[in-house]
């Protein structure tokens, strides 16, 4: 399995970052490539819950996320799958002196294999996946800041 990860810090307490992260109604604003959430079942964000979403035309297609572990104020681990990959995605929240650090990590394997799959993954796919995580965290920061501004005002 390949692993990609991204980390960002935000000037917000852990509980606010967590509340924003798990609000699936807001995901289209900040989750990279997500066009719409199709369904949320099973007590999201707790273990056993499932979210199914779709990307836009140039994205990942239909994505299934199944919660395998959840610890309030600490993070969540999901089994993720789409047409191209299957793997495990983890989000973790860590208190910092001036806010919260959020780390997003994806351990994945490609479903389709060829003699050059490892090279294509190393040179292209892994970079795209890491960029997607960074984009998600960047847009999440904006959404978190916006939600904090609306609570203050």
Layout of secondary structure:
Elements: E1 2-10, H1 14-21, H2 27-30, E2 34-41, E3 50-55, E4 62-71, E5 75-81, E6 85-96, E7 99-110, H3 117-152
Antiparallel strand pairs: 1-7, 2-3, 3-4, 4-5, 5-6, 6-7
What does this structure look like?
- The protein is α+β, with helices and mostly antiparallel strands.
- It has a single domain, classed as START domain (Alpha-D-Glucose-1,6-Bisphosphate, Chain A, domain 4).
- 31% of the residues lie in helices and 42% in strands.
- The chain contains three helices and seven strands, in the order E-H-H-E-E-E-E-E-E-H.
- A seven-stranded antiparallel β-sheet has the order 1-7-6-5-4-3-2.
- Strand 3 and strand 4 form a beta hairpin.
- The radius of gyration is 16 Å and the shape is globular.
- The model has no long low-confidence stretch (mean pLDDT 93).
């Amino acid at each position: 399995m390949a692993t990609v990860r991204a980390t960002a810090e935000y000037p917000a307490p852990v509980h606010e970052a967590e509340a924003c992260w798990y609000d699936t109604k807001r995901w289209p604003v900040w989750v990279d490539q997500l066009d719409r959430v199709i369904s949320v079942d099973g007590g999201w964000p707790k273990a056993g819950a499932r979210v199914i979403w779709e990307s836009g035309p140039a994205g990942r297609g239909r994505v299934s996320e199944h919660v395998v572990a959840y610890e309030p104020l600490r993070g969540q681990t999901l089994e993720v799958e789409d047409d191209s990959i299957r793997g495990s995605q983890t989000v973790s929240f860590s208190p910092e002196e001036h806010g919260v650090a959020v780390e997003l990590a994806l351990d994945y394997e490609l479903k389709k294999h060829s003699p050059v799959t490892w090279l294509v993954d190393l040179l292209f796919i892994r970079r795209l996946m890491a960029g997607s995580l960074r984009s998600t965290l960047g847009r999440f920061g904006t959404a978190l800041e916006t939600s904090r501004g609306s609570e203050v005002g």
